[in-house]
Amino acid sequence: MIHLAIIPDGNRRWAKTHGLPPWKGHEKAVENFRTLTDWLRKNSDVTVLTVWCFSTENWKRDPKEVGALMTMLENYLRKERGTFLENDTKFTHSGRKDRIPKTLAAQIIETEQLTKDCKKFTLNLAVDYGGKDEIVRAVKKIKTPNVTEQSIREHLDHPELPAIDVIFRTSGEMRFSNFSFWQGEYAEWVFTDKHFPDVTTDDLANCLATYGKRQRRYGA
In which residues is Mg(2+) bound (predicted)? Predict the structure, then answer.
């Protein structure tokens, strides 16, 4: 029972090395993501997969690239609904829905509703997500003046999901970057220099094997 989070860096760099526009890197990443997700469902102890698709800071990018990525995410959800149901996969979304395209927000809500009773595997896509933003939004939802750690946790995007066990970050990046501060407080980190479109199922297997050798002390 493992909650794996992936920060899939390097899509634009992958495209650049192949002489392609940035969104082509995202297209390749989506193709690769399908393969990796299918492998995780069938060949690992991972039961929850969180993937950080778009951060609260990514709005600073070229609007054409952002628009292409939003369309890709919408198409991905539309195409994968049947696969989610066939594989007993619950889909959830972390992040804001008020700034993304309305059509994508609708796809997210519909897919969440369609798969809400699935139990074997959970795919949590973080779109327009930032760790700070999630905590701020959670605090704003609390109706009492007595704000506690427990009350904040209860108002996070998905308090029902377990804490993140391991974070796998690609493309040689080694920083938090405003990811999941709360759920990832004691997560183990594993890094690879590979750009995400080049990551293979062997890389995921190595990530999980590395995690399995770690001794988690939780501050003790």
Answer: 9, 188
